[in-house]
Specification:
By secondary structure, the protein is an alpha/beta fold. The chain has 2 domains: 55 residues, 2,3-Dihydroxybiphenyl 1,2-Dioxygenase, domain 1 (Roll); 71 residues, 2,3-Dihydroxybiphenyl 1,2-Dioxygenase, domain 1. The chain has 2 helices and 8 strands. It has a 4-stranded mixed β-sheet, with helices on one face. Strands 5-8-7-6 form a 4-stranded mixed β-sheet. The chain is globular and about 55 Å long.
């Protein structure tokens, strides 16, 4: 790979299909709190998170005959998923429940085998979106010591 082409250093652009500008703004801007950066109608609405310093954006792209899929499109990492679910629920966001995964959790949060917590919800167009809280890493041993003990 050429040294100049490192996508790991480039800002992410996520695409979300939409069919109605007003519904998209009411959801992404008013419920989720994203900032409208540019209205590129009739092609797309460009949005970003208010505190996002990575340069990542969402292009809510007008897609005439769009049919939603069952899989997750964009998602957001959050530091406190329970707080985020509660705050979005107050705005009217409904979280999806999947039998055998998150249907018994009071806030519809699923914990993956590695400890990541995820909650899913849909936008007005049927796109599945998610929140994700990464597991808290175990504290590092003090003074560089390891878990092994000496048996002198």
């Amino acid at each position: 790979m050429p040294a100049s082409l490192k996508l790991s250093a480039a800002a992410l652009v996520a695409f979300v299909p939409i069919t109605n500008k007003e519904k998209a703004l009411a959801f992404y801007r008013d419920k989720l709190g994203l900032t409208l950066v540019e209205d590129q109608s009739p092609f797309a609405l460009v949005l970003k998170g208010n505190g996002d310093t990575s340069g990542a954006i969402i292009r809510a792209t007008f897609a005439g005959g769009f049919q939603p899929h069952l899989f997750t499109v964009p998602g957001w990492r959050v530091p406190d998923i329970e707080k985020a679910v509660k705050e979005l629920s107050v705005t009217g966001v409904l979280f999806n429940r999947y039998p055998g995964m998150n249907d018994k959790h009071p806030l519809a949060i699923w914990t993956a085998p590695g400890g990541t917590q995820i909650a899913w919800f849909r936008d007005p167009f049927g796109n599945v979106l998610s929140l994700q809280q990464d597991p808290t890493p175990a504290p590092a041993p003090e003074n560089g010591s390891t878990a092994e003990t000496s048996h002198d």
